[in-house]
């Protein structure tokens, strides 16, 4: 049969829609010659659950999923219905995908054993972060960390599988449910961001190789905390004000982090009278964002050491967090 090669048609009638998340993940997989594709499938499972959660958030005001669920979680915080919805969606996707053996979630007091005997990975997740913003149509997010389990596949889940340092993450990312829904992730070779195209049901690469600006003009803190934070923090904040920097605080960690990552800035959640060891959870909030920040050229510290070097001692451990542009984090450290 007579054939001819396909010659790319560049006419405006067939404009390209871009690189899908699926295709991107596949192309990255070939960079790891021994990769089996399980991590790629895991990332796709997370993306699928995030599309469902994005849909639920998008129509929340119409479908009776706003408001409190009626329970408090292990942190003593009131669970919102959407917290519960997101927890179910992500846990179910990870269970069915089969690559994950255990999940640590903000919404569950214990480790969830997914009974996937061949699952090589452990996931720590905050299914829906920014609870005070859930019901008021303000940006919220999902944060996830992926680790390789250290005990043999099929054996009971052990604490060393879940209490790993952030430096052991094999991938991490977040989904931002904002004016558009974005998925941003790293597997340790740069940070890439994808925007959800709702009408096509696909994430497309929109922010390749994100680089955090070395410095920036934004400082991000809940100002109500400042009467009870350390002197060094107060000095740094005063210096920011003297230098005419801009204060921006959404109160959703993912949204605040994302803005500062793109524009340059620093996010601070120090220890305070209310939260003497800080508020941000190490395993399923700080570690993922620290990995992303470093991969994009930024820094993340608890005020004493790299966040990624903290050895976790418990599932829901909290940490102070200072994260963002390199020069701003260094400047803060000069005050601490
Ligand atoms: P929330 O408790 O509302 O879920 O880590 C949790 C977090 O939100 C972050 O997303 C947010 O940056 C911070 O806490 C908000 O805390 P404050 O209300 O104390 O400012």
Overview of this protein structure:
Helices cover 29% and strands 24% of the residues. It has helices spanning 21-29, 38-58, 81-97, 159-162, 231-242, 253-263, 282-295, 326-335, and strands at residues 68-72, 78-80, 100-105, 112-113, 121-129, 140-148, 171-177, 181-186, 191-197, 202-207, 218-220, 246-247, 265-269, 280-281, 299-301, 318-319, 321-324. The longest helix is centred in the first third of the chain and has 21 residues, at 38-58. Helix 5 crosses helix 8 (326-335). The strands form four sheets. Strands 4-3-5-6-7-8-9-10 form an eight-stranded mixed sheet, with helices on both faces. It has a five-stranded mixed sheet with strand order 12-11-13-17-15, sandwiched between helices. The chain is globular. The protein has 336 residues and is an alpha+beta fold. It binds 2,6-di-O-phosphono-beta-D-fructofuranose. The site of 2,6-di-O-phosphono-beta-D-fructofuranose has 12 residues, from helix 6. 2,6-di-O-phosphono-beta-D-fructofuranose is lined by residues 129-132, 222, 251-253, 256, 279-280, 285.
Helix percent band: 25-40%
- Number of strand segments: 17
For the record, give the distance between the C-alpha atoms at the N and C termini, rounded to a whole number: 75 Å
Helix/strand/pairing category:
alpha+beta
Number of helical elements: 8
Q: What general outline do the C-alpha atoms trace?
A: globular
User: From N to C, what is the helix and strand string?
Assistant: HHEEHEEEEHEEEEEHEHEEHEEEH
Evaluate the radius of gyration. 20 Å
Uncertain residue ranges: none
Spatial sequence of strands, sheet with the most strands: 4-3-5-6-7-8-9-10
Bound molecules: 2,6-di-O-phosphono-beta-D-fructofuranose
Largest sheet: 8 strands, mixed
What is the average per-residue confidence, as pLDDT, rounded to a whole number? 93
**Estimated share of beta-strand residues:** 15-25%
